[in-house]
Specification:
The complex is a heterodimer of chains A (about 240) and B (about 400). With about 240 residues, chain A is of the alpha/beta class. Chain A has 7 helices and 10 strands. The chains are: A alpha/beta (about 240), B alpha+beta (about 400). At the A-B interface, helix 2 and helix 3 of A face helix 1, helix 10, helix 11 and helix 13 of B.
């Protein structure tokens, strides 16, 4: 079985002027297997965010290849990347990014609006969203609006939203960054549960305490991975 | 299927800010409504003019002195009017008219100031399709004999004599006593002339009693000669005959006459040329307000895109294609303009009907103006919505998600 994510010799260069070019990623290669729970760590300026954007198909590498679920997505256009994000990736953001005027249920439904493959009836979609909310323990909060929910609850809505299209990959960017420690533990536990059910999780964080929950830590520095597996201390 | 979903997103986006959406639409509503109202007012005016001109009488030729030619106003004479029936073939009647200054009219203790008086000839009721209701009109012989008789407009008869019959009564017009021999049918106000409020006299009496004469002005100058032609087909022939007759009598070149001969169609065409210019002007003014409405839509859409940058970034991250985002914002603009267009059509049609029913103005809704205004509104929505929608679609999700 091929890895879920296979990054080969990725480079990301900013700036056209050869004198002032910045190599955010410099010949970076890595692979993440199906079913892994990996944390990406690195200080600011390390290329960590660029890497996350490329893994999340929000950005394209300057050179190198990115195979996601067996398909090379490094050369896709914006519309194709949008479809890949919709189908293959569930995003969890630091600041939740829920639409304030929509109920929890409607927020969870958002990715289905842009699903080009599945055409479930409105009723079936709502059932599926309700199931997703139940799976994150919010069965009693479906019709609440984000401002009626605690931070931890909002992040759980966001996780339910990430799950709704059943993507193989959950990409979590500092998922506990805006949460108190109790809520952080809950969210990490929830990610563990998802991991155990077979979802591949890639989590970007700069908190070693959080990163330790992952089965594997990928450390990024100067646009490259270093000492894949045991670098948590070094990034302190 | 996907389009329906995006349509719903667009609609929900607008419903979020109902007041703002409504105010944005208002520009289009007013624009569309004013296009329709303006066009129906000018169409109403045209219809009213055409009707008035037609009510002058059928198959009528109107001979008047040439305007703008020095001295020409004095050259059309009563003798010309008398010569026409003698020398022109194909006519059924000739009525010369002259209107001196308004006079005071007295009868049975009632005094009315400033009453219009018109000197006419015996053919007047037949030529102008304006019959006598009661009594008789004076004859050609009575006119020749300068008989002191008068025929009253229906309204004036009522003002002077109430329910009493005016026939045989004596009235004083200016300083001349006249006997009432007839009352005309009710005709109303046509082309700003209140036919019912006038006194109709033999033109000879008018020449004798009411015209100021001096060395340049002859007493027997007429203002208009109406010629009734036997049939539509003979209009051209009669026009040619009258032109050559009057040119000879006036000793002028028939190609450069000192008089004009018009048919109702000529007058309608002249009037239409004026009202068409007026109508076009109104339509342009209304169109400009529609344009301003469109700019309002673009402005609000740009604000909306900026305000919702983060939302756009999120939608893109969750799988919205740039095209989906563009469609969403374009639809918002189009919905605004279509709803505005629809409301504007209702307001415009309703307003036109109300103006027509209760206002001074007459209106006729131009059927074409409805699809025209509505289509313009839709086009404006697409045109002015395109730029903001494209701006939204161009956003980079990474940047947009970080937008505060």
């Amino acid at each position: 079985m091929n890895p879920l994510i296979e990054l080969q010799r990725l480079t990301k260069v900013y700036g056209d002027d050869p004198e002032a070019q910045v190599f955010a990623l410099n010949d970076l290669s890595a692979a993440i297997q199906r079913g892994e729970f990996a944390a990406i760590m690195g200080p600011s300026g390390s290329g960590k965010s660029t890497l996350m954007n490329i893994i999340g198909c929000l950005d394209r590498p300057t050179s190198g290849s990115y195979l996601l679920d067996g398909r090379d997505v490094s050369g896709l256009d914006k519309n194709e990347l949008a479809d890949v994000r919709n189908q293959k990736i569930g995003f969890v953001f630091q600041s939740f990014n829920l639409l304030p005027r929509l109920s929890a249920l409607d927020n969870v439904l958002l990715p289905m609006l842009y699903d080009i493959n599945v055409d479930l009836s409105a009723e079936e979609q709502r059932t599926r969203a309700a199931e997703a909310l139940t799976s994150v323990g919010l069965e009693n909060r479906m019709h609440h609006h984000p401002n009626q929910l605690s931070g931890g609850q909002q992040q759980r809505v966001a996780i339910a939203r990430a799950l709704i299209n059943r993507p193989p990959l959950i990409l979590a960017d500092e998922p506990t960054g805006n949460l108190d420690s109790k809520s952080s533990v809950e969210i990490i536990d929830l990610l563990h549960t998802l991991h155990e059910s077979g979802v591949t999780i890639v989590m970007v964080t700069h908190e070693p305490g959080i990163a330790q929950h992952a089965g594997r830590i990928i450390c990024v520095r100067d646009g490259q991975t270093v000492d894949d597996g045991h670098c948590a201390e070094k990034t302190l | 299927m996907k389009f329906q979903k995006i349509l719903r997103i667009a609609w929900e986006g607008l419903m979020l800010n109902k007041v703002r959406s409504f105010l944005t639409t208002l520009g289009v509503i007013i624009g569309v409504a004013s296009v329709i109202v303006m066009m129906s007012i000018s169409a109403g005016a045209e219809a009213a003019i055409a009707e008035q001109i037609n009510s002058l009488g059928a198959n009528l030729l109107i001979v008047s002195p040439m305007r703008g030619v020095p001295g020409a106003a004095r050259t059309l004479l009563y003798e010309d009017a008398l010569a026409i029936p003698e020398q022109v073939i194909g006519i059924s009647g000739v009525s010369a008219e002259q209107a001196p200054a308004p006079q005071t009219v007295k009868a049975s203790g009632i005094t009315l100031e400033s009453i219009a008086i018109v000197g006419t000839t015996a053919d007047f009721p037949a030529v102008r399709d304006y019959p006598v209701a009661e009594g008789v009109y004076f004859t050609e012989q009575e006119n020749d004999r300068k008989l002191k008789v008068a025929v009253l407009g229906a309204g004036l008869a009522k003002d002077l004599f109430g329910e009493e019959s005016p026939l045989g009564q004596t009235i004083t017009v200016g300083s001349t006593k006249l006997t009432v021999i007839g009352v005309m049918q009710t005709k109303g106000v046509v082309a700003d002339i209140d036919y019912d409020g006038r006194v109709y006299l033999p033109i000879s009496v008018v020449f004798q009693k009411y015209m100021t004469t001096n060395s340049v002005m002859r007493a027997d100058v007429v203002r208009t000669i109406y010629v009734k032609v036997e049939s539509q087909e003979k209009i051209d022939s009669v026009t040619t005959q009258i032109t050559s007759l009057l040119a000879t009598r006036h000793d002028v070149d028939p190609a450069k006459p000192d008089f004009t001969i018009q048919t109702q169609q000529d007058i309608i065409a002249t009037q239409e040329a004026t009202t068409a210019a007026f109508r076009d002007l109104l339509a342009w003014v209304a169109g400009v307000s529609l344009l301003v409405g469109g700019i309002g839509i673009m402005n609000i859409m740009l604000v909306s895109v900026t305000e919702r940058t983060r939302e756009i970034g999120l939608r893109m991250a969750l799988g919205a294609r740039p095209n989906d985002v563009q469609t969403q914002f374009l639809l918002e603009a189009v919905i605004l303009s279509l709803v505005g267009g629809l409301a504007g059509v209702l307001l415009g049609v309703g307003g036109s009907l109300l103006f027509g029913a209760f206002g001074e103005m007459r209106t006729a809704i131009v059927p074409l103006s409805v699809p025209l205004a509505f289509g313009a509104a839709a086009a404006i929505g697409i045109f002015f919505g395109y730029y903001p929608a494209t701006q939204a679609a161009k956003l980079d999700p990474i940047v947009a998600l970080r937008h505060e």
